[in-house]
Amino acid sequence: MGEPELPKALGKVIEPGERVLYSVKKKVSLEKPKWLLVTDRRIIYLDEKILGRYDVRALPYQKLERVTVKLGIMSSEFIIEGEESITLKLGWMDKEEARKTINAIKEALNAIAVEPVSISVKKGLTSEEWILNKPKELVTRTAPISHTAPVQERKEDPMDRLKKLKELYDMGVISQEEYEEKRKKLLEEI
What we know:
By secondary structure, this protein is an alpha+beta fold. Helix content is 28%, strand content 31%.
């Protein structure tokens, strides 16, 4: 499989180090193309306009809640829902593009999620509905875990933290300089 075709305006939209995993382009009549891009960080909808203008809507995976694809005989509807009432609705994808896109989103989420993401499919006589619900507890491999710890764990007793610090030093996880610096700060809290 070759490199995916990408929009010209992507350089102005993409973040440093962000990779496009899948792209869908749709040219509607004489308008410039519309794009849906699945990256390793977010979903981007890019509507190119004439004279270099464009509209962009992006939804980071942390804010993604649900992706629904409704496939009918004549049309499909692709709905991406996120926190803060963010909704992207695309009615221009064909069935195969819609299936590939939802699977690309699933793979991107699985690459960062601890729990595997699943897709449910409801198939009728003339329609299909694919639904991807992001698990409520999406903990990413790239995000620090400390922000998910309960409040009582964060306000741990300085004496307990001092014991843990000594254990880390004894195991060789931290250097003597790091140990001394952190030990002094903890002693000030006592």
